[in-house]
Amino acid sequence: MISSYFKDIKSIIESYSHLIADYSLNEKTYSVEKGFIEGKVSFIDDSILEFAEVKNIEVKSKLKYRYHYMETNNNTIFRYDNAKHFPDLKSFPHHKHLKDKTIDSKEPDINKILTEIERLLLKGK
Predict the structure, then answer these.
(1) In the chain, what are the domain boundaries?
(2) Can you tell me the distance from the alpha carbon of 98 to that of 110, in angstroms, rounded to the nearest whole number?
(3) Which of 41, 44, 56, 101 is deepest in the core (most CB within 10 A)?
(4) Each residue of 27-74: pLDDT tens digit?
């Protein structure tokens, strides 16, 4: 059930509470299997992660996603998404935006994203 998927995301976020100052989630259930979740996570250094996923639990990959991690002044640190605007990348439509380039990437999940943020925070970006 999609509600279980949403609970898992909340649980993963809460497992990083040592890094998180605050967070909010918004969920929409389209059917038992399909839904939308978005969130905003504020970290102890004032950086922010905004994310959204459209997920059908009967399909392994997400239908749509974006994970946008940024400094307090909205400067991008990184962003993962599957928008179809970089067809020349090997991992199309999956990709990762960095400050000055876009690179191949696999489809991440919220745990991978939070682990990457944790590494950046611990080493001081």
Answers:
(1) 2-123
(2) 18
(3) 41
(4) 999 999 999 999 999 999 999 999 999 999 999 899 999 999 999 888
